[in-house]
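Much of the work behind modern protein science is quiet bookkeeping, done one molecule at a time. The protein below has been through that process, and both of its lines are reproduced in full.
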Amino acid sequence: MNRILFAFLMAIAILCQSSQAAELRLTGYQGSDGAITTYFGGNSIDPYFATKALLAAKDVGLDADVAARQWIDWLLPRQRSDGRFERYCLKSQRFVACRRADADDAMLATWMETLVRFAPPEGMPAEWKESFDKASRHLDTLRDRQRGVYFIAADLPVALMMDNVEISSAYKAVSKYLQTRHDMEAAAFWMRKATQLDRAILRVFWQPARGYLVSTQARDKIEFYPDTVAQIFPILAGIHPESQSPDASYLAWMQKHRFVWLQNTETDFPWGLVALVADKMGDQDAITCWRARSVQFRHGTHWNVLEEALYQSFEARLTPERALAPVPAGVRCR
């Protein structure tokens, strides 16, 4: 084979390889049975974090299909008959239900979104559809009929802004999925639910002079999470008041909170959710800084599977040379 032809074939091979999304590999988090622990080598499972991690990886462009389908196969038979999920602890070498979910509304929404976004091309299998319907029915029972937002749980009638944003995101994902199945009537139904919820979120939680409230329950202190992070979280679901564009809100947030966010990795969680918003807004400098400051804490006590999925997703975009390179000159991370 002559050199020119060989070089041409190699270039084609590299191009084809680079066009394929890298695969999410949750080594140390996901077992051979599909279970995903919250922490590296952990002995507990919070299904919300595992499910959110898979969705985040997909949002950023990583191929999470294998990990997601293994996770679905593990969690689906553990769904309660009323549609809810629990948290699990390792006992006698197996994970057993040991605590109730932290928030039923967010868990049900992220599960519904996962089922539609990772459904095979031919559509959801029957057992996935049955699980989706159970989750959807229970989530409907949590809706506050007066205010239009959703409560955390049946016995905890408090609505959280970020949970409701995740429900909106799920409804929009369901609508998009149904469009691909050419069921336009059902797709329109779910989009109406999302639109109604978006209006309710702004009506209940948005205050022009203060920004977003994080809860319908009064809070006695302001914390970076959830209060500060919440101010840009709605961007992920395309929600914003008419008086503020997402670009303006994001820029103002970063100007005020960027360095505090990046320094949080030293004493608190890295809050990769902010990096997820930065990615949606095309702020590559913020992502570069987050990677650079967070890597030393990878797999530690302040690093969960959501941070890991996002870290891998951002890393997959880089060539080996760029991944090892220092932060470029001109990018301020301190």
